[in-house]
Design a protein that fits this description.
homodimer; 13 strands; alpha/beta; nine-stranded mixed β-sheet; Stationary-phase Survival Protein Sure Homolog, Chain: A
């Protein structure tokens, strides 16, 4: 199995290192990851400036290709230019921090996996629920097991898995469960401060307002120490509203011009 | 009607100016937009550096608030800090270039409107199909008419409209139609070049591979000179795959630990 590994915390992070160590046991791993941290970049891509690619060594050994771009850039250039053959699987992570509920929208980790799905390559994003996580070995093991599941069952074109692993000792893990995206979101607060020159600046902070309370929802599952596995896609169409909008009669807006 | 206007091309662009001129006829408009162009930033948010907000004047008159951040940042800080009351509507645009099919994923314009939907504020993204568009008055008129439609009918919580207007003279417009997101996507090519110092760099280019061929699909609708109106949302769960994944028996991965 040819596996492309990417992340958003940067090629030097502990999470990607643990992921690579684990996936090496089941496949031929190529790392293409951002040179610098790219958290909360969403699905940004770089078009207006060029990208640089350099070789990154860890403990004197070649580890992977570092890209001066976003997670989605890494997957694009990894598949198009760096790998000689299209990978069988793309795994993004292991992210330092949850990607559940609304965080999926902002996540660079998820966007890398989504970019692979756009390119018709099966993919998975893996996150550990704490920003201060130190031990990624259990999440690495989960990544390996789920990679094997993807190889066995396949994924529909355009679908990827979003996996979140609670940052607790393995013996405290309740189990593993298929979930949907939660509705918890942030109560953003911009702290207004003054710089040393007396000018205002604003710094984003806030708390996740937890509204999810079913075990089959990603945010509640990880809170209850379950490994959460959500199938997600990138067809954003709201089909229910699409049907209801027939009553809007938008075709009448342009004096009867209509399909 | 209190309307917050944002975009991704930056506060100085022609598209946002035309939008404001048109929406002023039906409401009280507040502009909060990026100081600099932010195309293809996706749903990035700024957490690790502070934001600055400055007043932007056009022809000697106050036009709006310029933010040193992304489109989603502008909507967040606009609603949380700049506007005294939550707006009734957020309109993002008018973007210079299509946001149809896969482009919705990469779009800063759409992400601004989506951020509003996340904050439970009805919203709409508006784009004109050409990067070289000069006349945004018709798209401004469409924005005004659809804003009125949203005021009349409401939108479900979490749903926004993605509107694309063909860049053709108004008399060539075929009509206006409710659509779904297309499947057309890019055949990314990274051109490999050498800089003056002999080092390689890569520049993203490519063509949109058009696979959509039904008039009820955004990309095909605009190609046939229809104004395209797509309801989209941010629940990324793939419910069909979720049901099918029961056969994966992931709960067996952790030695029988399960819900």
């Amino acid at each position: 199995m040819r596996i492309l590994v990417c992340n958003d915390d940067g090629i030097e992070s502990n999470g990607i290192y643990a992921l690579v160590q684990s996936l090496k046991e089941i496949g031929d791993v190529t790392v293409v990851a951002p040179l610098k941290e790219q958290s909360a970049v969403g699905h940004a891509i770089t078009m207006h400036i060029p990208l640089r690619v350099t070789e990154f060594y860890k403990d004197g050994e070649f580890f992977g290709h570092a890209v001066t771009g976003t997670p989605a850039d890494c997957v694009k250039i990894g598949i198009r230019n760096i790998m000689k053959e299209t990978p069988d699987l793309v795994v993004s992570g292991i992210n330092h921090g949850s990607n559940t509920a609304i965080n999926i929208i902002y996540s660079g980790t998820v966007s890398a996996a989504r970019e692979a799905a756009i390119m018709d390559v099966p993919s998975m994003a893996v996150s550990v629920t704490s920003h201060t996580a130190k031990d990624f070995r259990f999440a690495g093991k989960i990544s390996k097991m789920l990679s094997q599941k993807i190889a066995d069952h396949g994924l529909p074109v355009g679908t990827l898995l979003n996996v979140n692993v609670p940052d607790v000792p393995e013996e405290k893990i309740s189990g593993i469960i298929i979930t949907k995206q939660g509705k918890s979101k942030w109560d953003d607060i911009y702290e207004e401060r003054k710089d040393p020159h007396g000018k205002n600046y604003y710094w984003l902070t806030g708390n996740l307002m937890e509204v999810d309370n079913e075990i089959e929802i990603d945010q509640f599952a990880v809170k209850n120490n379950y490994v959460s596995v959500s199938p997600i896609h990138f067809d954003l169409t709201d089909y229910e509203t699409l049907n209801k909008m027939k009553s809007w009669k938008v075709e009448e807006l342009l004096n009867g011009k209509s399909h």
